[in-house]
Structure formats: structure tokens, C-alpha cells
Design a protein that fits this description.
475 residues; five-stranded antiparallel beta sheet; rod-shaped
């Protein structure tokens, strides 16, 4: 019989196994949701980095556009000064025009530095185009500055318009390059934005799906666990009730023989409460002196063998009366084989003892009757016709003590002629279903006394009808 602790341990193991099986799907769903969220985070970080780079490129486009606007403003100023000089002929405009040409060159160099500084942000083709534009602009400006130093009047009056137009054309081409790149970046940004939105929406939907699945599985597992725990508690209570109220006693002894558990049935038999026994009394405290000696010799052996079968004791009740019991036990050991406690079953054998007593009394009565019958009574073995029993009257009639007769045959006790007659009568009884009556049977005792006896013989048979004994009564 399992104790409640052991039963609950088994139920807990079964429940844990069920939980492990159920948790696999939950863990997998949580893992999938986590993977999706990690992928979304990686995509978000990548997108943020890309957007940051695009933002830098956009800022650079604004800077380039501003620098191109400043260069265009300087070119417009130069064109205005040229026109004013042509219209008025004033040298003031001529001297201002030289300074303005220097300003154009200075702003062109600033534009070049800004463009080259961001070359790494462009594709190889755009980088090469930007370098061509800057090289062309630098060449035009260099020729313009040289011509202005050598022949400024001719430049203003004749060729300056052409130079300005060339510079303006390069500036407009660079502006167009920047705006084209900006438009392409915006289109790519919009496409990537749409893709990212779709990925985030789909990813969050998948994560939500996995999490919803996990939540439902957790709820199902929680309900299943609650049902399993309720069933385990119900079964544990049933086992505990069976343990406590079984029609036999149960107890457990530690290594020293002290009670660590005893069921209600055995406590009621002994007249004790649990708090009076558990952890306070040892089995020898409830034994007679003979039982104490048996326990002293037998308990160390039991702890080694781990088995006790139908050992009879007399337990001493609280009121001092005796309770005859039969104890069977097994040993409980730890993982290393060390003894922990006994698991003992106790049966009340009072009725058996009473039956045995009545049987002994009946046997004693029959023995008394047998001994006091005033006739010879003999019991022989049906197989070899040896004497098994002889009463007191038989001893007197034969003139022999029973120890001289028991275990011997007639041939070993009497002469041949008389033995032949007796054996024939025995054989007749073995094959007959009725009593064989021998009115006159001569007997010569070993002391030489001649007797003639009236004998009745009958075969005593087993449940299969086979003869096992011969009963003879003689006078």
C-alpha cells in the first residue's frame, strides 16, 4: 500500500510528463514569435540605417543645391556687371567684375569640395559624372580667369557671354544631376517604405498569431493541469482513505524501529491516537518480552533482506491486553540502496488464534477420548501397514508400550501365522467401502500371552477416495 506522499509523487510525475508534452507546442510557438520579432527588429534596424543614409544624402543634396544657387547668384552678378560696363563704359563695373569672377571661382571650389566630400555616398557612375562636371567647370573657370587677366575688355565685350553660358550650363547640369538623384532616392525610399510596412504588418500579424496560439495553449494547459491536479487530489484522497480505513493495519518503521506512520485501523486496534505513537514509540514498545527478543534478532536481518512474510506477534494494546497479529513487510530504499523505512501490513489473527485454540481443545478432547476408550485402538498407514497410533488400552492388551509399536509392522511384532491373518484383514478393509468385522482374531503377544480379540477395521480415505489410513478397534 502506497502512502499519500508516495501516491502524490507518482501523480506529480505523471502530471509533469503531461505538462512536458503539452509545453513543447507552447515553447515552439513562443520561439517562433521570438524569431519573428528578432527578424522584424533586424529589418527595422537595417531600415533605420538606410533611412539615416538617405537622410544624409538628402541633406547633402540640399547643401549642393544651396552651393549651386550661390554659384548661380555669383554668375548672375557677373553678367549684370558685364552688361552695366557695356552700357555705361564705366571702369567701376570693370574692377567689380574682376572681384566677382574671383567670387565665382571661390564658390566653384567650395562646390567641388562639397561634391567630392560626398563622393562615397554616390554610385560609381554618379561619382564619375560628378567628377566630370567638376573638371569641366574648373577648366572653364580657369580659362575665364586667364582671359580676364590678359584681355579683360575683350572678354567682357565679346567672349564673356559664352564663358558665362558654359558655366551656367555646367551648374544647371549639376543641379539636374542632384535633383535626379534626389528623385530616385525618394522613389526608392517610397518603395522600401511600402516593403517595410508590409513586412512589419505581416511580421506582427505572424507574431500575434503565434502568441495567440501560445496563449490558447497555455490556457488549455492551465485548464488541463487544473483538471489533472483535481483528479490527482481526488485519487490521493481515495488512496489516503483506503490507507487509513483499510480492514487491515499499516505502519512504517524507520531504521531504528520507530513508528513514522500508522493508519487509523491499527491505531484503533491498539487504542492509541496518532500523536501518541508517531515519532514517539518503537515497535518493541508494543511487544511482549518474547516479541522484543524476536524483533531484536530479526529486524537487522529484515533491513538487509527487505522481506518479511507472515510473522506472528502479540502486540500489547494501550490497556495492556494482547492483540495477536500477522505482519508482512517490505523495505523501502533510496537510490543508493540504503534503508529508509518499512512498509508493513498487519492482520488481526484473533479469530485464527481462537480457531486454533478450539482446534487444540478439540484435538485434546479427541486424544482424551482415544486414550480412555476401553478397547484397543490402532491406526496404520495404508501404504505399508505400519503402526501410527496406539492408545492406552492397546498397550495393556498387547503388553507393549506405544513407543515399541509405533513405526513397526505386524510382522516385526507377532509370529508369522498370526501376522498372515491380520494382514489379510487389513487388505480386506482397504478394498472394502464398509467396515470389516473379524469376530475372532488370535493374537500372541511378544510376552507369549494368547488372546482372541473381536476386531473391526475400516479404511479412512482422502477426498479422492483413496485409502490413507486403517482404523482398527479391538476387544
Amino acid at each position: 500500500m502506497l502512502s499519500r506522499t508516495e501516491t502524490m509523487s507518482l501523480e506529480a510525475a505523471a502530471l509533469a510528463e503531461s505538462k512536458n508534452e503539452s509545453s513543447v507546442g507552447v515553447v515552439a510557438a513562443f520561439g517562433a514569435a521570438l524569431i519573428v520579432l528578432i527578424i522584424l527588429a533586424a529589418i527595422s534596424i537595417t531600415s533605420l540605417n538606410r533611412f539615416a543614409r538617405e537622410g544624409q544624402a538628402t541633406v547633402h543634396t540640399v547643401q549642393m543645391t544651396h552651393a549651386l544657387d550661390e554659384l548661380a547668384a555669383a554668375l548672375l552678378e557677373a553678367r549684370s556687371e558685364q552688361r552695366a560696363y557695356v552700357m555705361t563704359g564705366s571702369t567701376v563695373f570693370l574692377s567689380n567684375h574682376g572681384a566677382t569672377v574671383g567670387k565665382v571661382a571661390e564658390r566653384a571650389r567650395a562646390l567641388e569640395e562639397l561634391a567630392l566630400d560626398s563622393a562615397a555616398r554616390r554610385t560609381a557612375a554618379r561619382n564619375a559624372l560628378a567628377r566630370d562636371r567638376l573638371t569641366q567647370l574648373a577648366r572653364i573657370l580657369e580659362e575665364w580667369e586667364e582671359d580676364m587677366e590678359r584681355r579683360p575688355l575683350e572678354m567682357i565685350r565679346g567672349d564673356s557671354g559664352t564663358r558665362l553660358q558654359q558655366v551656367e550650363a555646367v551648374v544647371e547640369a549639376m543641379r539636374g544631376d542632384e535633383m535626379s538623384a534626389f528623385d530616385q532616392r525618394m522613389e526608392a525610399f517610397q518603395r522600401q517604405r511600402a516593403v517595410n510596412i508590409a513586412i512589419v504588418v505581416l511580421g506582427n500579424a505572424m507574431a500575434l498569431l503565434f502568441l495567440t496560439f501560445s496563449f490558447r495553449r497555455l490556457m488549455q494547459e492551465s485548464a488541463q493541469r487544473a483538471r489533472a491536479e483535481a483528479a490527482a487530489n481526488l485519487q490521493a484522497r481515495a488512496v489516503e482513505d483506503l490507507y487509513e480505513n483499510a480492514p487491515c493495519g499499516y505502519h512504517s518503521l524507520d531504521a531504528s524501529g520507530q513508528f513514522i506512520r500508522m493508519n487509523r485501523t491499527e491505531l484503533q486496534w491498539l487504542g492509541y491516537e496518532a500523536e501518541e505513537v508517531i515519532g514517539k514509540l518503537s515497535l518493541p514498545d508494543l511487544l511482549t518480552p518474547e516479541g522484543k527478543e524476536i524483533f531484536r534478532r530479526g529486524y537487522p536481518v529484515f533491513k538487509k533482506t527487505g522481506m518479511l512474510d507472515d510473522m506472528e506477534f502479540d502486540l500489547v494494546r494501550k490497556d495492556g491486553t494482547l492483540l495477536p497479529v500477522s505482519v508482512s513487510a517490505t523495505a523501502v530504499r533510496d537510490a543508493n540502496g540504503a534503508y529508509i523505512m518499512s512498509r508493513s501490513t498487519v492482520f488481526d489473527i484473533s479469530r485464527r488464534r481462537q480457531a486454533q485454540q478450539r482446534m487444540h481443545e478439540a484435538q485434546a478432547f479427541l486424544e482424551s477420548v482415544l486414550e480412555n476408550i476401553p478397547a484397543l485402538v490402532v491406526i496404520k498407514d495404508a501404504r505399508d501397514l505400519r503402526f501410527l497410533r496406539l492408545n492406552q488400552a492397546g498397550e495393556e492388551l498387547l503388553g507393549l508400550r506405544r513407543e515399541q509399536v509405533i513405526g513397526k509392522t505386524s510382522a516385526e511384532l507377532f509370529d508369522h501365522e498370526k501376522v498372515t491373518f491380520a494382514v489379510a484383514a487389513d487388505q480386506a478393509a482397504l478394498v472394502s467401502s464398509a467396515t470389516v468385522d473379524v469376530p475372532e482374531e488370535p493374537i500372541r503377544t511378544p510376552a507369549g500371552v494368547e488372546r482372541v480379540v473381536h476386531t473391526r477395521k475400516v479404511a479412512i480415505r482422502d477426498k479422492h477416495g483413496e485409502p490413507t489410513f486403517i482404523l482398527a478397534i479391538a476387544q
